[in-house]
Structure formats: structure tokens, C-alpha cells
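Researcher: I've got a protein sequence and the SMILES for flavin mononucleotide. Could you write out the 3D structure of the bound complex as C-alpha cells? I'd like something to compare against our soaking experiments later this week.
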Amino acid sequence: MPVLVAYATKYGATRGIAEHIAHELTNAGRPAVALPAATVHDLSDYSAVILGSAVFVGKWHRDARHFVRRHGEQLRQRPVWLFSSGPLGDATHDKDGKDLVETSQPLDLAKHVEATGARGTTVFFGALDSARLDGPARLLMRVPAAREVMVEGDFRDWAAIGEWARGIAAELPAEPA
Ligand SMILES: Cc1cc2nc3c(=O)[nH]c(=O)nc-3n(C[C@H](O)[C@H](O)[C@H](O)COP(=O)(O)O)c2cc1C
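Model: Sure. Here is the predicted complex with flavin mononucleotide in place.
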């Protein structure tokens, strides 16, 4: 059975990460498919699930939160990993010296881990194209503190994403013959 990489995205960066993970898993001999979380209605056909979401104002995208609520029981019956796509910019630490990967965990991550029984979680740097932002996001960009952390550009670290995916491929239980 294939592995599902379900993603919740607003602007597309998380979709690219999910597709890269699915590609790496498939290359490692564990066929995987990346699908928008909102389009998945049953997990019976998947041996394991990786769920990824963009982070907006400290929270996962609605589609990822609904996915966890909808599929909690099926998620707890198979191996699950979670990832978030959030921090922007080239810096790895904020001005107080805190690791951005640590500080960018969604505020309600513990709840999602508990609901899914996830074996692992991570945060990847994301991407931001200000030309594509909606009205509320544009307003937020006017706040100086928000502007400081909402750095325009594509900061997705394909090497780190690939390494995480290959680690999961190695951890997945063997498929029954
Ligand atoms: C309005 C807005 C709020 C954001 N809030 C956060 C945040 O709280 N934490 C974070 O790490 N990234 C935050 N980001 C950055 C996004 O999570 C990042 O750009 C992500 O890669 C977008 O994913 P998507 O293209 O899949 O929608 C924010 C971006 C926008 C536009």
C-alpha cells in the first residue's frame, strides 16, 4: 500500500514540500502520493500518512486541522509523521538567539501529535511571494514586527526535506509480502 503525503496550503509552498517528500519516498522504494488534505476522505488504502501544513499566525491551515479531526481514528492505526512549513529568511535564529525551527512550531502541535499518535514532527522553512498575498495578509505586512519575520523569497531547504523523507522511508514497517 502506498504512503499518503497529505498537505494543507494557501500559497503552494507546502504542496511543493509534500511532492518532494513523496518523490523521495518513492525513490527509496516506498511508493507515495501527495494529495491536498481536503480531498482525502478515507485512509484505508494507505499504509502510513505524512501530514504537512503551512503555519499562519502560529496555527496550522484549516484543512490540516480538519484532516486530523476527520481521520483521528484511522491516523492512530497507522504510522504518522507531521511537518509544518513556516519560517522565512536566511537566518536560522531570531534576534533573541532562539532557533527559528523551535519557535515556529505551531502553537497547537502537541494537540495534533496526541490526536494522531505521530511518531515524529518537524518544521521546514517555507516561501512567500508578496504579490500573491490576500487582503488580510497584506494588512499584516504593514505591521513592522510582522514585516521583520515575513521575508519574501523561497527558503525551502530541499536537502533537509529529502533527508527527513529518507529517514521516514527507513523507519516505515516492512510491507507484508
Ligand atoms: C499572513 C501570514 C502569516 C504567517 N504566519 C506565520 C507564522 O505564524 N509562523 C511561521 O512560521 N510562518 C508564518 N508565515 C509564513 C508561512 O507559513 C510560509 O510562507 C509558508 O511557507 C506558506 O505556505 P503555503 O505557500 O503552503 O501556503 C505566515 C505567512 C503569512 C502570509
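Model: The radius of gyration is 16 Å. Residues 9-14, 54-58, 85-88, 104, 126-128, 133, 137, 140, 150 surround flavin mononucleotide (CB under 6 Å).
Researcher: Great, I'll pass this along to the crystallography team.
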